[in-house]
């Protein structure tokens, strides 16, 4: 089997001491062989970390040469010193590869409000420069280097054909919601050897994000650091991509991002279920999104799934307060395929069977069908457990 | 001491069998001696219970003669039969007092999706008719009759002078968020002997609600049954009220509603803290409301307070994703009076002292000061505990 790593990238990770456990990487470096197209999607939080400010100003671009990420410290709410430290981190990487600091993107994740321990990072970078490579093991080390409270690395890859050439996509992400005290939070990088212009990369990344990374929730808390980067080396020899070929590539990217995104609520702190919310029959995407998000964020819905309770009242009433206008008499609700609610009244169903279907499977399907149109939409959430509350209330005390 | 019950009302409660525990009242009746002014504020949920549809169509009014409430069953999502049962309940009360069913308001709270056991209600109503009175004990029985999972009755009263006459206000409410499986949820009735027109009653009730009952959250789940009624008998002999006298009365009503409203998150399922969120320096009320609500609904903020953790990062980042534009460098955060965050950077503070102040008090004060204007706003929330999750995930299973 050939390497799943797209041509044009080398990767590496290292433990420099930001995390206490010496077996856990806390630096992750991706180096591009040549100037590379990069686009980003960033948190909409008004309070943003230094690396988000840095990357926003430098993407989209066709001159990116590296992405350096540290975990264990978010470099958020750190004032001017935070900006200085971030620039220094980019500068050290730039110097090593003989490029400008503006060609280096940065990401940070971890505790908020503490300045980066730059001595550890300086020493760690020297080490990580020695450990770069383009094998799957290098990719895995880099993927572990962006983790915080994740149970394990979150990666996905795909191969497809574009303009008759084999193209590779591979991605890593981290996050389990803004779950841990001040952990900040969702980071992801996708690499491909397809050829994209900066504008193409930006556009398809935004579109794909709207249907994948923007459709997940653990606790509804949007962090200060969320970043998703797409790097396209163009090394696959596809030439320019447009029309159907671009659509095809976008579909592959979307599937990859969905694979990555779903791993986040699946690993939501303390979660015992991945909840997939399917919305059908809405008038438009915005309505479908609002209903899905309201149901997905409801603590009562989450608790019901935790307990294997086919509690349709919580789901129907959450849809009802989403702010979207719909005909309540047209609403149909299914959980794991079982019809629970129709035409404004509960349906007779075997509670034990439905409850057992929730308990027996890690994934729970909640499908809400409306009669306002034909827009479909999907959203993913984790359930809410005693362990989530314990973790988030007892962490510091 | 004179009775706190305003003139013109008789009340009573009875256990008819909707609740299992025979010591818990599940019917509550308020009867007006004469035609009485009444106004209501109702849930904004699109999925609404039969009594909400009924009352909405009949308020404001100056002809109301009774309010009949049952607890233990919400009569929500019960289709046509639900409407019929609700009308029958109003009709039985109307017949007893020789008035029209349109002069009787209804409220229901309890499990969603089950038809009312009308035989029990019919028999119970005959009993409650025999138990009416205007002593405090009658009021208390009626107040217990609207409870579901509340730990105890929630009541408040005030006396003031309007146009030189002594005026009484007394209120009852129930609810602990939409906390229990399908419990639906917030009900409240306020009685006064002041003289108001239906339009006045409607307007001041809406205004007061915006600053009291609309400023509380337990889990952000808006129910299908929320109802707040104001009944004004005019028996205090105030004559028409306007200008400063009306403002004065409104201030008293607001204080009463605040006293009632705060009892709901204070009794939030499993809650160990009442969190008061004070917003200062916003450009307008809407911005202040959005920030307050976002912080109040954050599971991470709630968990931090549960654990006595002065976790300013969670509070600041919740404000940041509220959707309100503000200068992050101008934000100042205090918890129980201790400054934790200022000018975009954390402030040095003694974590143990602040933590202890959270642990030592049932009430936690979170004050966020902005630099966009001079609008102030308050919001109340409960914390999130292991008991909340246990209760809501293990109830049925």
From TrEMBL, chains A, B:
<dbReference type="GO" id="GO:0006592">
    <property type="term" value="P:ornithine biosynthetic process"/>
</dbReference>
<feature type="binding site">
    <location>
        <position position="392"/>
    </location>
    <ligand>
        <name>substrate</name>
    </ligand>
</feature>
<keyword id="KW-0028">Amino-acid biosynthesis</keyword>
<comment type="similarity">
    <text>Belongs to the ArgJ family.</text>
</comment>
<feature type="site" description="Involved in the stabilization of negative charge on the oxyanion by the formation of the oxyanion hole">
    <location>
        <position position="109"/>
    </location>
</feature>
<keyword id="KW-0963">Cytoplasm</keyword>
<keyword id="KW-0511">Multifunctional enzyme</keyword>
<dbReference type="Pfam" id="PF01960">
    <property type="entry name" value="ArgJ"/>
</dbReference>
<feature type="active site" description="Nucleophile">
    <location>
        <position position="185"/>
    </location>
</feature>
<feature type="site" description="Cleavage; by autolysis">
    <location>
        <begin position="184"/>
        <end position="185"/>
    </location>
</feature>
<feature type="binding site">
    <location>
        <position position="397"/>
    </location>
    <ligand>
        <name>substrate</name>
    </ligand>
</feature>
<keyword id="KW-0808">Transferase</keyword>
<dbReference type="InterPro" id="IPR042195">
    <property type="entry name" value="ArgJ_beta_C"/>
</dbReference>
<comment type="pathway">
    <text>Amino-acid biosynthesis; L-arginine biosynthesis; L-ornithine and N-acetyl-L-glutamate from L-glutamate and N(2)-acetyl-L-ornithine (cyclic): step 1/1.</text>
</comment>
<keyword id="KW-0068">Autocatalytic cleavage</keyword>
<dbReference type="GO" id="GO:0006526">
    <property type="term" value="P:L-arginine biosynthetic process"/>
</dbReference>
<protein>
    <recommendedName>
        <fullName>Arginine biosynthesis bifunctional protein ArgJ</fullName>
        <ecNumber>2.3.1.35</ecNumber>
        <ecNumber>2.3.1.1</ecNumber>
    </recommendedName>
</protein>
<feature type="binding site">
    <location>
        <position position="174"/>
    </location>
    <ligand>
        <name>substrate</name>
    </ligand>
</feature>
<dbReference type="InterPro" id="IPR016117">
    <property type="entry name" value="ArgJ-like_dom_sf"/>
</dbReference>
<feature type="site" description="Involved in the stabilization of negative charge on the oxyanion by the formation of the oxyanion hole">
    <location>
        <position position="110"/>
    </location>
</feature>
<dbReference type="GO" id="GO:0004042">
    <property type="term" value="F:L-glutamate N-acetyltransferase activity"/>
</dbReference>
<keyword id="KW-0012">Acyltransferase</keyword>
<comment type="pathway">
    <text>Amino-acid biosynthesis; L-arginine biosynthesis; N(2)-acetyl-L-ornithine from L-glutamate: step 1/4.</text>
</comment>
<dbReference type="GO" id="GO:0005737">
    <property type="term" value="C:cytoplasm"/>
</dbReference>
<comment type="subunit">
    <text>Heterotetramer of two alpha and two beta chains.</text>
</comment>
<feature type="binding site">
    <location>
        <position position="269"/>
    </location>
    <ligand>
        <name>substrate</name>
    </ligand>
</feature>
<keyword id="KW-0055">Arginine biosynthesis</keyword>
<feature type="binding site">
    <location>
        <position position="148"/>
    </location>
    <ligand>
        <name>substrate</name>
    </ligand>
</feature>
<dbReference type="InterPro" id="IPR002813">
    <property type="entry name" value="Arg_biosynth_ArgJ"/>
</dbReference>
<comment type="function">
    <text>Catalyzes two activities which are involved in the cyclic version of arginine biosynthesis: the synthesis of N-acetylglutamate from glutamate and acetyl-CoA as the acetyl donor, and of ornithine by transacetylation between N(2)-acetylornithine and glutamate.</text>
</comment>
<feature type="binding site">
    <location>
        <position position="185"/>
    </location>
    <ligand>
        <name>substrate</name>
    </ligand>
</feature>
<dbReference type="GO" id="GO:0004358">
    <property type="term" value="F:L-glutamate N-acetyltransferase activity, acting on acetyl-L-ornithine as donor"/>
</dbReference>
């Amino acid at each position: 089997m050939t390497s799943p790593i797209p041509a044009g990238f080398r990767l590496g990770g290292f433990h420099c001491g930001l995390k206490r456990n010496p077996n856990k990487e806390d630096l992750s470096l991706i180096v591009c062989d040549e100037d590379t197209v990069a686009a980003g999607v960033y948190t909409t939080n008004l309070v943003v970390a230094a690396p988000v400010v840095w990357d926003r100003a430098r993407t989209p671009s066709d001159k990116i040469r590296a992405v350096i990420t540290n975990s264990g410290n978010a470099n958020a709410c750190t004032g001017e010193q935070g900006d200085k430290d971030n620039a220094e981190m980019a500068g050290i990487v730039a110097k090593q590869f003989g490029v400008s600091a503006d060609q280096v993107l940065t990401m940070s994740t971890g505790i908020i409000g503490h300045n980066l321990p730059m001595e550890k990072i300086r020493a760690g970078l020297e080490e990580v420069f020695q450990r770069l490579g383009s094998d799957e093991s290098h990719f895995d080390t880099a993927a572990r280097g962006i983790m915080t409270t994740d149970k394990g690395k979150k990666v996905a890859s795909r191969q497809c054909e574009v303009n008759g050439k084999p193209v590779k996509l591979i991605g890593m992400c981290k996050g389990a919601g803004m779950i841990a005290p001040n952990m900040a939070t969702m980071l992801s990088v996708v690499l491909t050897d397809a050829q994209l212009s900066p504008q193409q990369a930006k556009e398809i990344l935004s579109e794909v994000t709207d249907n994948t990374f923007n459709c997940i929730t653990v606790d509804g808390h949007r962090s200060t650091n969320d970043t998703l980067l797409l790097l396209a080396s163009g090394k696959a020899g596809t030439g320019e991509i447009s029309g159907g070929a671009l659509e095809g590539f976008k579909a592959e990217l979307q599937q990859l991002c969905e694979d990555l995104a779903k791993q986040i609520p699946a690993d939501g702190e303390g979660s015992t279920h991945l909840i997939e919310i399917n919305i059908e029959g809405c008038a438009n995407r915005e309505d479908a999104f609002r209903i899905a998000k309201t149901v997905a964020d409801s603590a009562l819905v989450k608790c019901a799934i935790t307990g294997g309770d086919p509690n349709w009242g919580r789901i129907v009433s959450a849809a009802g307060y989403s702010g979207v206008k719909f005909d309540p008499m047209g609403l149909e609700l299914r959980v794991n395929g079982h019809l629970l609610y129709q035409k404004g009244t509960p349906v007779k169903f075997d509670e034990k069977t439905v409850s057992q279907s929730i308990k027996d499977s890690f994934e729970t399907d909640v499908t809400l069908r409306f009669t306002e149109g034909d827009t479909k939409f999907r959203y993913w959430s984790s359930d809410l457990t005693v362990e989530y509350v314990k973790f988030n209330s007892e962490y510091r005390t």
